[in-house]
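REVIEWER CHECKLIST
Item 1: Sequence provided? yes
Item 2: Single chain? yes
Item 3: Sequence as submitted:
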Amino acid sequence: MAIHFEQLDRQRRGMMWLVGVLLAAFCGAMLLTTWNGDAPSIQLEQRWPSMVGLCGLIVLFVLYVQNKHRQLAALEAKLRDVAVREASLQARFSELVFLFDTSTQIQLRLDLSSMLDLAAQRLVPCLEAHQSSIMLYNEQLNQLEVKAAAGVDAERVLEGTTRPGEGVAGHVFSTGEVLNLTPEIMEKRFPGATMRGRQLVAGLCVPMRFRGTPIGVVSVTRTSGEPFSEMHANILASFAEHCAATVVKTHHHRELLTQVRKTAEAAA
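Item 4: Structure as written out by the authors:
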């Protein structure tokens, strides 16, 4: 991309040199057309066709230069837009690599608590958030329970609970909707609701689903800075899906180990 900008700069410099040379040539031609005998004199009455012709050529050339300048400016703007998109894609790719590297790591841990703690901790720097939390659904008690939290005031968030359909997390769990939250959206859609232990400036709340079945909710928030983008929401949603599969597989593995242990004890 830097090569393209250098080429544009060379073309712009070349055009400016061309303008200077041609204007000098036009001035010389005008001087020749007004030369009379041994000394130059301006005789518009006799030389007006030549003068008008030269002025017309100068005007046409100036218009041509302006048109080329606009084309170069449009091309430069397009190249800058491509550069911004390329940087955005690189950032998205880096975040995906970071998040799925975390997913790979948590798959290697059979302890569910440490898995979720690791995921919550890694989400904070990856999404430039200030707090993250993971809630899992307790089917017996019919409630969502915070199982892991990281960032500012994480201890205030731990052990928090909510019912499906209640508040932001309950709504996301019940509907499967990905919420990109701002103070305005919170006031409009969830009046009176608060994000436990945090002052919301920007937030994301996504469902954890395994084969269409909700098992929990992942949330990240910022206490200052810019709102999250749609790219961040998509990345977190993909990660939550991957994390949900890991949690379910861990549960199944635990159940299998328990059954094997009971069978061995019965056989003994």
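Item 5: Key structural point noted by reviewer: Confidence is low (pLDDT under 50) at residues 38-42.
Item 6: Recommendation: ____
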